[in-house]
Amino acid sequence: MGRAGPYRLRQGGLIEREQVFPFVMDGRAYSGYAGDSLASALLANGVRTVARSFKFHRPRGIFAAGVEEPNALMQIGKGAHTVPVCRAPTVELVQGLEAHSLPGRTSLGFDPWRILDLTAPLWAAGFYNKTFIWPSWRRYESLIRGLAGLGHAPAAPDPDQYEVRNLHCDVLIVGAGSAGLKAARQAAQGGARVVLVEQDRSLGGQALWDGSTIEEQSARDWLQRQIGELNRCPEVTVLADTTAVGYYDHNVLALWQRHPSARAAGPRESYWIARTQRVVLASGTLEQPLIFCHNDRPGIMLARAMHQYLRRYAVAPGRQVLLATNNESVYGLAADLKQAGVEVIAVADSRSTVSDSTTSEMRAAGIPLLLGWMPIGTAGLGTLRRVTLGHLTADGLGILERRTMACDALGVSGGSSPNLPLFAQAGGSLAYDTTSGSLQPTGTHPAIEIVGSAAQSVPIGPRISPVGHSRHKWVDLLHDVTVADLELALRENYTSVEHVKRYTTVGMAADQGKTSTAPTLEALARLRQVEHRALGHTTMRPPFTPVTLGAIAGRSVGEHFAPRRLLPMHASHVERGALFQDFGEWYRPIAYPRGGESREQALLREARAVRMAAGLFDGSPLGKIEVHGPDALDFVNRFYVNNLKTLRPGRVRYGLMLRETGVIFDDGTVTVPSPERVLLTTTSGGAHRVSAWLEEWHQCEWPDLRVAILPVTDAWATVSLAGPRARDILAGLDTTVDLSASAFPHLAYREGTLMGLAVRIHRVSFTGELSYEINVGPDSARCLWETLLERGTGHGVEPIGLDALLLLRLEKGYLHVGTDTDGTTVPDDVGWGRIAANKPDDYIGKRSLSLAENLRDDRLQLVGLR
Is pTM, for the whole model, over 0.70? Predict the structure, then answer.
């Protein structure tokens, strides 16, 4: 028929025949044209079997032309660039493309595991939960996962770039077919900021290839004009190769954009987080299959997909084609196949009547029309060779006669289902409609408008064959789920559609029920003999199609996944040979070994310096929160087990914070610089969670309290000077703070200047020695740090790491939340029971402390060892 494959038509299509692209499939060389998809190129080359089925290893062929493809899942590329589980119809053919059938399926030509199909009764739904019990599932796991493999992730780091981006608009339109383009034009003319999203690489949808007429123009001319106008409009953003994969609260949508030809110049994919006021769903419909015996053979294809391959890619689906339908959609395909020189054996329509114009059209084209007939079985070794048709009884529940026809391709159409998972994710209600055999909206959504074919309901006839063994009728091609599996689920008393889904895996994983939900609901309704609408439907969760983890992560990989936070004095620590370690998100010095010292030796030397002279510690990660307002102290008092209302201005008090369960949550100091200002310190790891905890209680429980919560951990560096010589070292610097013991006692707080720098000083000790905790601006912190070390040389000052601090804290007997506590520790377990019981005011967690579990005499207790 033409170049680049025996099934390529000599003319027609939207492909660029001047650009021939060689590609490789499973090590075998083929060629296609620019504009081809991988699926169209394989079909043009006569490749029928492209996969083995998930469970039974049955041969499978290309079934669809878009994201609904359940069979042709490929591993694309090699090495670090490889991508598993790509749908062949959505993969753009590029120069030198390498594709592989998914590993775990052995050979497409000869597969010894085909024996699984011959023993299918042993592997019914849920077999793995019932069969592989002894000695354990682990004994069989590797074999089963290997047989059912869905590709492999690259072993090397991904060298490509990905982006996570944000956008805001007034109107977001999903689908750039004729209805979507019209909606975009109208919105733009109204002055709205518009984003138009299309999952295909070309705009136009079905109008791109179906040869229709729009507004008294050819569809192609109309599309060209519309796209040109939108491209000239500055308020319209068009995102092709982009799928709307999820709809979330407050009209936030996730968009997955591919950049197949931009690998060298920019990101491979982008993940857009779009915020909009209004959404227009012009998402079209997904054609549904017919259910009959052996409806999964290579050569059986959705009729609309067959039509698209014919007109868009100039590919004949076969040499002898039979069409089977229960609606009006295939008759245009029949005429186009005939015109393209493809033999159309017949059109079998399960309905008993069609319009006179349809009958006349088929008669004029010389195509036999069989009314009241539908497929009931197929035959063929590997690929389709024959189809058996059955003449339905008037009620569609029996067969009057049978007829077998030889053919190599069967196009099926069981009606169309509106493509509305985004509508359901947004909270829109769907229900099964018996007339159209699909899920239809039962109401409206305040932010969503549905337009185009997605808003239409087309009547259909019978879709499921009334005869044949249910074990051979596939409702989910991707997961090898048959009508027999549905029957078994019902016998096992899984009557809810959600339970049936989980028991049989119908509509799960990569497929998400695109071609299986509607047939499954119809089959279940028949089997249970209930109204279809009474079944409901399964939850349509995002993502709508599988999304690469790289796109979701964007640049948040490697060091950017959890950015390492460096201390304000980091450079000074490096210069002094610090040994570093990650603590939460901070990179902190744990010791400063000298002259070949081990970590333990450095720890002991630094601890001894604090006991005998002075040590300087970088405590910048210490959590710092300010609470301002007339009700600040009352608000803070509700979070701590000890009484803070008696805390005077300029004084500091240590306290414990609990969760509602009475379990210790965090600890730290509380300072009152002035009546309407309270300063809190928290553990380094608790800074974010404590500030979020305070904010949550203020917003949700006590919004009437007049407070403002300000996390200021990053606004202040902390330099802690501890040891018997600490006051002498500080006194040697120019300061406005009176450091005398009488003026600045233990558990006091002062503000002033030190070396001309604004400072806040807490006199608190976690070492058992005289200590000053100095807060200073992070830009000035290194200057203060270096000066203290320089001026303190004569006093024996040394920098100390976390190891020494934790040892000193342990020796003092001071509680260390997270080390001395776990998820069950209450105040009484650590010696704070009396303090918690004596507080007169209520506080978070107080009531839980009276639970019998928390009052047991045999609870674990924190004790000190000498």
Answer: yes
